[in-house]
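Structure, all three chains, one model.
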Amino acid sequence: MSVASLAEKSDVTRSDFFAPSLKKRLAYVAVFAYLVYAAATLGLSLDRIEKGVGYGVRFLAGFFPPNFTETDIIPGLLESLQIAFLSSLIGTALAIPIAILAARNLMPPWVSWLARLLIIFCRSFHPVIVAIIAVKAVGFGALAGIIALTFASIGFVGKLLSEAIEEISKKQIEAVRATGASFMNVIAYGVVPQVMNRFIGFVAYETDSNLRNSTMVGVVGAGGIGGTLFSAFQRFDYNFVAGIIICIIGLVMIGEVLQIYVKRVFR
Amino acid sequence: MTTATLEMQRWIRFTPLQRLSRFAVFFAMAAAIAWALKTIEIIPEFLYDAPEQVVDMATRMWPIDWDHFWPAVWPALVETMHMSAMATILGLMMGIPVGFLAARNATPFLWVNLIAKFILVATRSISTLIWALFFVAMFGPGPLAGALAIAFHSIGFIGKMFSEAVEESNKGSIEALQATGATRMQQIIMGYWPQVLPTFWSVALFRWDINVRESAVLGLVGAGGIGMALNAAIDLIQWQRVALILLTIFIVVILIETIVTQIRKKVI
Amino acid sequence: MSTLSIKHLVKEYVPGKPVLKDISLDIEGRGITAIIGPSGTGKSTLIRCVNRLIDPTAGEILFEGQDLAKLSGQPLREARRRIGMVFQEYNLVERLTVMENVLSGRLGYMNAWSAWRRKFDESDIQKAFALLTRVGLADFANRRADELSGGQRQRVGIARAVMQSPGLLLADEPTSSLDPKTSVEIMEVMRDLAAENNIPVMINIHQVDLGKRYAQRVIGMSGGLVVYDGAPDGLDADILKTIYGGQDWLAT
């Protein structure tokens, strides 16, 4: 029986294996239709795109050559770094106990419920919004930025860490408890080894996130290079804008490289 | 237990090199923190004033201005949802190809990888607010600028997640396809894509969740969405409206999170 | 004076349906006591009530002059460190090294700061090394626990329990996850280490032949009650039938 004759004799058709799923097709059509509708609501028209691209080209021309020489750049960048460091430090330090309190496998329900509510609250508001409120509370400057990003860090690390703690194996903890270890010792020998790797990953990601955000909160007056950027923009000083942007990208890239090294040391 | 003859053993937890590196990292971090604490400018008066200011603001926010909702907040909210949905879709459309280009196994040309990786880092470093500044200048104020800003910013994450997923995918299945003479495009569609599909849903949902939050903020620079209503309320010093908008944002964010968690359970 | 004295122990997971109905027994100072019985009869519950990993509903558990059933907080922890436990699935902390796992037996005696910094007493470190050598794992001291085979992990588990210098060693089905040859090895390690260090052993086991071979005393449980308490030789077919019910499995 050759393959060819087998094929002749069979009576399966293409649609037996690749039957178009009606549901899937409808889904694609729905998504496409939504895209068209949303685009219209947003005012996306060909004419507008054309004009925009025209502006865009003029823009890009205005970026060159990038201007780094204004004296405002260094203090602004340094302030952003400060904000990023301090908020990461304080945020992570606070997030650790909160995450332990929020872990449903370690704590009674009413405790974990409260802690999780706190974490959700910290996460729901964009750091810029928190920055606006912080500026109202403590005035313009880096402190507002630190407060805003600390909240963001607590929310971010707190959520991920509490989820990591909830996923650990109960058996390993049970054995440590059976030796008569205190609660803190159980955490140190039972919980920490199981979440340490992931924790380092979260902290690295969060520091990177804070670094990027710290360049943004300045737009509402909470310190850092964001403010310098915003005013440059409003002055149409695009050469300076380009310079700042390149510095920001450079900063983030350096941060990435450092992260890889630190991760390797601790993992 | 006759172990008298056992030699005294030393228990070494970390090798000397490991100890040195760990110490170096701790030291560097401590130095950075010390520098930051020393040089940061904090005006003490503002700090002491803070609790008072917060209480003052809280009292001004009460009672919440519910009447403001339907005329101003609701349309802005709808706009925000459209913005974030469009932005997620556009971000996926742009980010996925760049992600594939950045993956060493799907695109073996080193210089293409590097350029793609640079694009990913660059788009990610420029925060949405800054992208929004550009697009507002290019396309005028409104949600179009906002959607594009979020979309471009997302390219970085989406591309990074995808390139990592592609780089971790099973080499064997790709090799098999290559052996049948499939073109690169075919390898991508039949080899890589099925393997990264779970990542697709995970990333899409994650990004949509974040994008909703971002779109609430872009209005501060004129890029549409509920942020514009927020900005207007702040400018007019109408704290009760601000409270309403903040509450709305909070509820919407929680709703989206719940929806996303439910979808995640079903799809992933 | 017996080391462990259990009086009228009752445990109900669901009110009205007790798993342990009325258990009373005394464990003397030396040797291995094996507890046998079908699944679900409460063997594991009994063992875990002793060190309070499970809380009893009623009854007394007298150990070293205290009623364990009534303790909580710091006194309970102090009592626990006097009781070592070996688990069915070894329950080692997989990401820690073998050495750290053995030394974690001393955690009941250390404050949080020294524990975190791994500042164990030198004598403890020497003892840990000695124990590892005794169980044949001296070369594995710095390996991560998840790199070891099942039998090796259980030996680490036993070393950890003995590290506590306990007054009593509990074992909850320590050989159930191991192949027959390794099971025998583990039973011998436990027997020898316990004998050398004068620790009575209470072991919960479902392989009856292993129990008979290594224990000086066998307790048979059925339906939440003790139905046999005596020498291994006394376990004839009738008694085993009472405990396990059904004859088929006896015909091996």
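Chain C has a mean pLDDT of 89.
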